[in-house]
Specification:
single chain, alpha+beta, four-stranded antiparallel β-sheet, Aspartate Aminotransferase, domain 1, Rhomboid-like fold, 2 domains
């Protein structure tokens, strides 16, 4: 993580022009535009903007960019709350990190989303017609970065309940635990750059399918026996919570096949 941070700082220092001042304002404006189009077209416009590999390979290359502006929720209240918080969080992060560093951080997140979104159909053809990339995990990573920088800042839940950001971050961890339980994982622990997933329910075929995915090769190992477990070596600079959530989701999907 420190190596990645030093590289990011050095790159931003050496390329001061590689930045988009007020980047989050453009993201929020794009979200607002897509939201309004969705209202007037009853969802038809959004169907042409999401990241669907089959359509991209047929020439609809604009989806490589437009998925960035598709909101996570089209419920009016949820959209307003998420958009306001994203804008507030993004501007504070940009001020703390610097415009160039924040632009590189956000750009790397988008780039990784695109790579994963295009690789998923190669791993499993069922993803050809599925939406394989969105901004959920990038904005979640932004939230944890923000909670790390400003742990004691409070937000008003339900407009009147003050909650510190560090407690919201812990809530996300609790949600991960709940999702893990549904996937048959009883416990998740971390030691340095290694995550260990204790399996309460051992499904050999499901585990083998997940271990065979390209993104986990040489990083994910399984230990059978009385206490079956999965061990995942994190990629350099990878967010532990995001990586854990991704593996849990893959286990859930594999169990349904």
């Amino acid at each position: 993580m420190r190596t990645l941070s030093r590289w990011l700082s050095r790159f931003s220092y050496n390329h001061p022009n590689f930045s988009v001042d007020g980047l989050i304002r453009y993201i929020v404006a794009g979200n607002l535009l897509v939201f309004m189009l969705d209202l007037f077209t009853h969802g038809v416009s959004t169907a042409f903007l999401t990241f669907v590999p089959a359509y991209i390979l047929r020439g609809q290359v604009w989806r490589l960019i437009t998925f960035i502006f598709v909101p996570m929720s089209f419920s009016p209240l949820s959209f307003i709350l998420m958009t306001v918080f994203t804008y507030f969080m993004g501007t504070r992060l940009e001020n703390a990190l610097g415009s160039a560093r924040f632009t590189v951080y956000y750009g790397l997140g988008v780039g990784l989303n695109i790579i994963v979104g295009l690789l998923l159909p190669l791993i499993n053809p069922m993803y050809q017609m599925a939406q394989t990339a969105d901004m959920h995990y990038l904005h979640l990573a932004m939230f944890f970065a923000y909670a790390t920088l400003y742990p004691d800042m409070t937000v008003l839940a339900a407009f009147f309940i003050p909650i510190r950001l560090k407690w919201l971050a812990l809530l996300d961890v609790a949600l991960l635990r709940a999702a893990a339980a549904k996937a048959g994982v009883s416990d998740i622990t971390q030691k340095r750059d290694v995550l260990r997933f204790q399996l309460a329910v051992f499904r050999p075929e499901s585990v083998v399918r997940v271990c065979g995915l390209n993104k986990y090769r040489q990083r994910l190992t399984v230990a059978a026996g009385e206490d079956p477990a999965l061990t995942l070596k994190l990629k350099p600079g990878a967010d532990a919570l995001e990586s854990a959530m991704e593996l849990v989701e893959d286990l859930k999907l594999s169990a349904k096949e």
